[in-house]
Give the backbone structure.
Amino acid sequence: MAPTELDLTAHDGSMLGDSHGAGEVESGASVAGRSPRQLAVARFRKDRGSMIALSIVLFVVVMGILAPFLVKLGVLDPYSLNPDLVDPTNGSLPTGDHGGISADHWLGVEPGTGRDLLSRLILGITYSLFIALTASLLTVIIGVVLGIVSGARGGRVDALIGRVIDMTLSFPQTLMLLALSGGFIVLLVDAGVPAGNPAKGLYVILVLALFGWPVFARLVRGQVLTLREREFIDAARVLGASKRRIYFKEMLPNLWAPILVYFTLTMPAYVSAEAALSYLGVGITAPTPTLGNILTDSANYAESDFVYFFFPALFIAIIVISFNLLGDGLRDALDPKSDQ
């Protein structure tokens, strides 16, 4: 005799078949589809190191934004001289122990001037991040535009942009920075840029962007070479879309992941570059503080006042490492083949 539904009844009176089906429905209902962005965010949140780096980066950026307002409110005092806090008989080093650290000056004071080191470092973050952010944006914009045009057009346009990239990369960057600084700054002043630190800061920004875009343009070009063969690009061409629309409405949205990752990796590189240029005498000069010129000045006191040398180096190291870890975390999260 063929088994009936009664034969499938469990000892507790429930239907085995119905129970199995309900389990499938229940498990299926708990599974929700997630977009690639949601998957990337989930992978990023699982990376504890990246989350810590993101927290530090956000804190640094907020402090950089608030610093000028805190100076106006009197919370920070990066410019006031305190000659009573340095000892002229001892090379104008801070009085007391550990670089003049006290309740009023948490990180000590600057040798020679007695200016509050913590205030100068926090305001220095503002100027250093502004230079790095502006240079990074210019680098990304130039690299994206030329990379898309080069990869999408091909032919002579691709060859011309490729030769410009090769020529730019062939120049010795540091030597060119030093050689061009005097004349280029004069040209900026003649063009209407205020003399002094505004012209010097703009020069640093332009030079960093000028020598930074070729690498990113090559990266974008490689991505575009694969995108231009995709079906949605062919469909846009068939529908009569203009080249501008294809470049910036169809291709560009598919490049946001490498753009974001490269941007977060370029920012710390430019923070370090600003410090290096300050050491070489190219960049913003005191009393306007940047992390670079503070570290440059503190190098003269590395042995006699190690505290003054340590904190600027620590600030730069924390910012650079945090941005790099954030960039690495974003790269892993945005990688669809990642197992994290």
